[in-house]
Design brief:
The chain is of the alpha+beta class. It has helices at residues 3-68, 71-83, 129-133, 236-286, 301-363, 368-397, 409-418, 421-424, 451-467, 499-504, 520-530, and strands at 104-108, 114-117, 145-151, 154-167, 170-179, 194-200, 213-219, 225-233, 405-407, 432-437, 447-449, 473-482, 485-492, 534-539, 545-552. Among the domains are: 69-179, Beta-Lactamase (2-Layer Sandwich); 290-398, Helix Hairpins; 405-552, Heat Shock Protein 90, CATH 3.30.565.10. The strands form 4 sheets. The chain has a 5-stranded antiparallel sheet with strand order 2-1-5-4-3. The longest helix has 66 residues, at 3-68.
């Protein structure tokens, strides 16, 4: 704290301290009384919430029990037992069950495989992880419980019950219930000033918590946290009272503060001003402005301090210039080392080929024509590799600035894939199956981008996906409208990438291919970055890879 602040503090404390003590005591007493009343009211509300949840769980158990014992359910179980283990014809079987209140409805086999799902029909054939992890319990008579389930829009919390339906030697399981969403607390009247929120276990603990918030944990069947009910009481009334007390105290203390400011300004202005100027100059230096100088004309201690500061900034400026030169030299050395490494591989076959030609001409003139033909073919191939390497380095060094135009993302992805479609089923090459999952809104909602650069980036990613599937596979192109942003994805079913490869994949000159230069994905990242977007990869070994691009619709300068 500077001298002016110390003087202000000394003069103001004598006035503020007594006022603050009185205001604090009054505020504390008022708040404690309010909190006692609020705690009693909150406890009553929590009991009501628990009773309501218990009632709903009981209703779910009763409804699922009735559904499991219905004739239509038993007939369906008999039909499925005859078709076991092929249940593909029963993917829409849930529509045949009379489950009026069941928003969540699934039929599972004894190993947890989904035979039919009402809330997500596309999950046919998947396994319910929570069901298989439950072991082999006796579901008969088991009460309903809370469980996190998978929904088309993401994970959700539901009140469900499980009942076994047997048909001969085959056992099927009926999973049904209702979703427990954020509207649960709004199903019955709330007292004035009280708000109840349902928070999932992923968000539990992330929000602010204080004495005004009462946490009611909701447990699943394994007695683990499934969600929380956060009961928050409004403190507007007590806050308004505390505000009035505060402002009265502030008005009384304000006079003391103003007097302290006046006296501290008069006494310390001459001393603190040079120090403040020096502190401001130090902030400028910290921000990177090493050319900052201060007035060092004074003949006292502050003058000597200002002179030392100016000398320090001059030396820092000189050292920074030397460091920049060193970094430039290091960058050129690294570029030369990379270029030499890339050129070394094709140069060695060139040398061997020329030596073979000379040796054949001297020792076997009659076979020289045949050797010459083979050698020239090798020379042309390796020279082509050299041209490709030089072209890659040249392209990376002179990436043009984007020339933005209104284009369709879907059409750009179709156009990029169309170039390589003949290679997908060419004779002698592994078959690749391509498919589109494009957002139809992006056919009309265009974005501002450079069509040539975007085509180049997408082509690089498609080629990369093809290289990742030497034995063939599937290639998927997706697009999605995310409001002000648009997302493009290119997925392959190749061997996937390790975590380390994902982190280093976009680093210039890094490559996991035998003949790669390591510049392809670096060029793609440069194009995406110039458009104000970002690119990343999601992959696991043996599970393929997905390259995702997110770009603003209005261009890099307007997003």
């Amino acid at each position: 704290m500077n001298l002016r602040g110390k003087l202000l503090l000394l003069l103001a404390v004598s006035v503020i301290l007594p006022v603050a003590v009185v205001a604090t005591l009054v505020t504390y007493g008022t708040t404690r009384t309010y909190e006692q009343i609020d705690d009693e009211r909150t406890e009553l509300l929590v009991q009501q919430l628990r009773q309501e949840l218990s009632r709903r769980l009981t209703e779910v158990s009763r409804d699922v029990e009735q559904l499991a014992n219905a004739d239509s359910t038993l007939q369906l179980a008999i039909q499925m037992s005859k078709a076991a283990p092929d249940y593909s014809q029963f993917a829409d079987a849930t529509s045949k069950l009379n489950a009026a209140n069941a928003l969540i409805l699934e039929i599972l086999s004894d190993d947890g495989t989904i035979i039919a799902s009402k809330h997500w029909p596309a999950r046919f054939g998947y396994k319910e992880q929570w069901f298989t992890q439950a072991g082999e319990p006796d579901w008969k008579g088991q009460p309903a419980f809370l469980q996190t389930i998978e929904l088309p829009e993401g994970s959700g919390l539901a009140m469900i019950a499980v009942r076994e339906v047997r048909a001969g030697e085959h056992a099927f399981y009926l999973v049904a219930g209702q979703r427990l969403d954020k509207d649960f607390a709004g199903s019955f009247p709330m007292p004035h000033g009280v708000r109840v929120e349902l928070v999932t276990k992923e968000d539990a603990g992330s929000g602010p918590r204080d004495r005004a918030t009462r946490i009611v944990p909701l447990l699943d069947r394994q007695q683990q946290l499934a969600a929380e009910l956060q009961v928050t009481s409004s403190r507007d009334e007590v806050e308004a009272l505390n505000q009035r007390i505060f402002w009265i105290a502030a008005l009384v203390a304000g006079g003391g503060i103003l007097m302290g400011m006046l006296l501290s300004t008069l006494l310390a202005g001459r001393i603190t001003r040079p120090v403040e100027q020096l502190a401001h100059a130090a902030d400028e230096v910290a921000a990177g402005n090493l050319a900052t100088q201060v007035d060092d004309s004074r003949r006292d201690e502050l003058g000597r301090l200002a002179y030392a500061f100016n000398r320090m900034t001059r030396e820092l400026l000189e050292q920074r210039e030397k460091l920049v030169q060193s970094e430039r030299v290091a960058a050129w050395r690294e570029l030369a080392r990379r270029l030499a490494h890339e050129l070394k591989n094709p140069l060695f076959p060139l040398q061997i080929t020329v030596e073979n030609l000379l040796r054949a001409r001297e020792r076997n003139p009659e076979q020289f024509e045949e050797v010459f033909k083979e050698g020239t073919e090798t020379l042309l191939v390796e020279i082509g590799n050299l041209k490709n390497i030089v072209s890659r380095f040249s392209d990376f060094s002179k990436m043009p600035a984007p020339e933005l135009q209104a284009i369709s993302v879907n059409e750009a992805m179709r156009k990029a894939l169309r170039v390589y479609e003949p290679q997908f089923s060419a004779q002698g090459r592994p078959r690749i199956t391509a498919r589109f999952e494009l957002d139809i809104k992006l056919d009309e909602n265009k974005i501002e981008a450079d069509p040539d650069l975007l085509h180049r980036a997408l082509s690089n990613l498609i080629l990369n996906a093809m290289d990742a599937m030497p034995k063939g596979g599937s290639l998927t192109l997706r697009s999605r409208d995310d409001g002000e942003m648009v997302r493009m994805e290119i997925s392959d079913s190749g061997g996937g990438l390790t975590q380390e490869e994902c982190q280093r994949l976009f680093t210039p000159y890094y490559t996991s291919k035998q003949y790669g230069t390591g510049l392809g994905l670096a060029i793609v990242q440069s194009v995406v970055s110039d458009h104000g977007g970002r690119i990343w990869v999601e992959s696991e070994p043996e599970k393929g890879a997905t390259f995702a691009i997110e770009m603003p619709k209005k261009g890099a300068g307007k997003a």
